[in-house]
Amino acid sequence: MAKIDTLPPLREVIRTHDLHARKSMGQNFLLDLNLTAKIARQAGDLTGCDILEIGPGPGGLTRGLLSEGARHVLAIEKDARCLPALAEIAQAYGDRLTVIEGDALEIDPLAHLTPPIRVAANLPYNVGTELLVRWLTPSAWPPFWQSLTLMFQREVAERIVARPGSKAYGRLAILAQWRADARIVLQLPPEAFTPPPKVSSSVVHLNALDAPRYPADAKVLSRVVAAAFNQRRKMLRAALKGTAPDIEDRLIAAGLKPTDRAEQIPLEGFCALAREIAKT
Ligand code: SAM
């Protein structure tokens, strides 16, 4: 077991604070500090950055982020049982860790963060996907974050980096690749976690682009893409019927064939369509 700081090993922390994992909280903990430091390194140079960590749990990744030199970590954790263990980390690392108890979907962390800001998290996948979509779709760009380093089920990670024509291509690929460079940087087997989940996991790293690759309104693009992939086997003219009364004309004006299917349309095509649909 690696010793990246003077704190006790994570298995001992879990025993001391009785942090048996709860399924209802999506808890699968990373207890190998070598691995959490490696994940932290995927977030890039942390010195001089504030890190927003969602779901620190017993603090494995938190310790990795701090030992890798993060200027400050703001961690949001829903499970109050984890707070005493996190308080020990805060004490060991001086004023470099702040913990907020609560639901990351409800809390606005920005008041507690100073740019440049990076985000790192190992979250239950449904919360992770919801947050990822929110982080990718603010109306203004660039966003508050420089990069996102996030653990997902492998299948979800593959959807984020998928290319047109593949089964995994859909809303997540388009929203992620529209405004960021997205790469899978690490693959983790179930045994890396305690308890092991049923599926493998991947760490995805997204760097925010200075500007979106193609102009489009985030809300309109999200709506169009959600509708197009909701019925991915249908032709676009049928799948998008509800988005505009003259959808066939708008598809043609965007340079698309009404008989195409969503899976075949590259990012550029969806952005062109979102611009056509946004016209009054
Ligand atoms: N980061 C730790 C690690 O890698 O070992 C814990 C990972 S565990 C998969 C997910 C963590 O997110 C748990 O500590 C859980 O309590 C927390 N969590 C779940 N839903 C949350 C939410 N909506 N807001 C904040 N934390 C949440």
Specify the biggest β-sheet: 7 strands, mixed
**What is the beta-strand fraction?**
15-25%
Strand order of the largest sheet: 4-3-2-5-6-9-7
Q: Give the number of DSSP strands.
A: 9
Residues in helix, %: 25-40%
Structure, explained:
With 280 residues, the protein is α/β, with parallel strands linked by helices. The protein folds into 2 domains: 10-208, 3-Layer(aba) Sandwich (Rossmann fold), CATH 3.40.50.150; 218-278, Orthogonal Bundle (Helicase, Ruva Protein, domain 3). Helix content is 36%, strand content 18%. The chain has 11 helices and 9 strands. The chain has helices at residues 10-16, 33-42, 60-67, 83-92, 125-136, 154-161, 171-179, 218-230, 236-239, 247-253, 267-278, and strands spanning 29-30, 50-54, 72-77, 97-101, 117-122, 147-153, 180-188, 193-194, 201-208. The strands form 2 sheets. It has a 7-stranded mixed sheet, sandwiched between helices. Helix 2 (33-42) packs across helix 3 (60-67), helix 5 packs across helix 7 and helix 8 (218-230) packs across helix 11. The longest helix has 13 residues, at 218-230. The termini are far apart. The chain binds S-adenosylmethionine. S-adenosylmethionine (SAM) binds next to strand 1, helix 3 and strand 3.
